[in-house]
Amino acid sequence: xxxxxxxxxxxxxxxxxxxxxxxxxxxxxxxxxxxxxxxxxxxxxxxxxxxxxxxxxxxxxxxxxxxxxxxxxxxxxxxxxxxxxxxxxxxxxxxxxxxxxxxxxxxxxxxxxxxxxxxxxxxxxxxxxxxxxxxxxxxxxxxxxxxxxxxxxxxxxxxxxxxxxxxxxxxxxxxxxxxxxxxxxxxxxxxxxxxxxxxxxxxxxxxxxxxxxxxxxxxxxxxxxxxxxxxxxxxxxxxxxxxxxxxxxxxxxxxxxxxxxxxxxxxxxxxxxxxxxxxxxxxxxxxxxxxxxxxxxxxxxxxxxxxxxxxxxxxxxxxxxxxxxxxxxxxxxxxxxxxxxxxxxxxxxxxxxxxxxxxxxxxxxxxxxxxxxxxxxxxxxxxxxxxxxxxxxxxxxxxxxxxxxxxxxxxxxxxxxxxxxxxxxxxxxxxxxxxxxxxxxxxxxxxxxxxxxxxxxxxxxxxxxxxxxxxx
Length: 472
Known about the structure:
2 domains
């Protein structure tokens, strides 16, 4: 038997895994897999916590999501984005008056770069209310980094001393980098690594990392697989559920797919299939027993994904879940053109989905046990390309939940400029906070110990601060 020993499998863990195999013996073909899951557990818990990643595919326009609102910085924003005279809308700039209802005031006094004050996109009224209530925080200028970088270091071209992520400004590369902290082709995400550490706390390890937003490396671990679910619920093997052509073949197909076989490969296939069928029944039963009064808009795909996540959270006791990582996603954020017409609709859908999901967690009594956070390929250029904005780097993101130290900004606010040293051209923000730090703060709340943090986030030691402080 060959062992694949990853960077985090030390001698103690390796011996523990061998010990587990010694107990199980050769009777279980998947003994190594389940021993690995047990080995990975870094903490034992009795409560429930979930992280929900809301990934905005395409690269969200940061400057029309969190907009400068004080007069001096609004005027800079408007001039760069082609605003009209009298602080009216123009080019790709929003009017200042449209921001009045969503202007943000920190709950505790904060002085940002150049005395910046912000407003949310006009459609994000629910997020504004959660900010005011202390349940929503903003993380400023976060993005993929390998090490902290200054503009001079970035411009030096000395990749050996000052490495930057590969494939900057590329959708595929940066989607992978945000989700896995590695270039395109990575098969393990940082959400999956958290799942590896937490899976032994769950009655069924296969429900540790769940995607309602399609296949995503974010929720793929080294030992934990992602469980994919549709907005309509658990996905069955249809040939075992329904008879066709007037015959009663469904029960026969199910029997053929689950009975013991003499051939070892056929038998293993049937073991896996039976496990899948059993899991389908468990999930369908658990979510079927949850009746939510909170309405979700079925025409809003992101809301529909979050609705099934809420159902799964509601069925956590029946499923034996203590720690879960979820992934949902929305598309359409690649706004090279039509920014003014398309971005407001995206913001409205995001606002509605987050609002409905948060209210569902309140109804379920788990609002302080579920933390949602946004992510995206990258931010975009502050400069206009005429009808939109182009690919960028750093961006602003939101964290929502009852355990969030909300109503505050975290990270460093960038200047509203095309020439400052905190951008690398056209207002592409040079991140001042790494995705690793974002992840580490969430991981710490999730239960990952300081000694295990480098297991989930191998580069966290490159940054001076591992916990950004936005979680209680």
